[in-house]
Amino acid sequence: MKLKLDENLGHVASDLFRQAGHEIETVPSEGLSGSSDEEVIVACQRERRGLVTLDLDFSNPLVFRPSKYSGIMVLRLPSKPSYDDLLTVCRTLLRALENESAVGKLWSVERGRIREYRPADWQENA
Hints:
Blueprint: E1 2-5, H1 11-19, E2 23-26, H2 37-47, E3 50-53, E4 72-75, H3 83-99, E5 106-110, E6 113-116, H4 119-125
């Protein structure tokens, strides 16, 4: 899958995704560091890349409608995360991507599980 890793993820995360066979670009490598969320997601949309990020702002489906993008995958870490926590969440996402496409979806990725935003579920609870 074609993915863009946000600037809040490091080289080790990039290496993990590349080793798993994904085509990776990063926000820093494309000169987008410090860009607005809107600029980053537009770049993803233009390049048809899913976004992998720690930025919780991307988890708002009212602002970033998942169906418009090639996937938004928000990594959720504990309040005092360790380096191992980051690697574990990245591996959780990689296992999911082996079996399912994230295109058009919003995934909240936690240690050992992924919650997928579903518009019908949200409308029922609103």
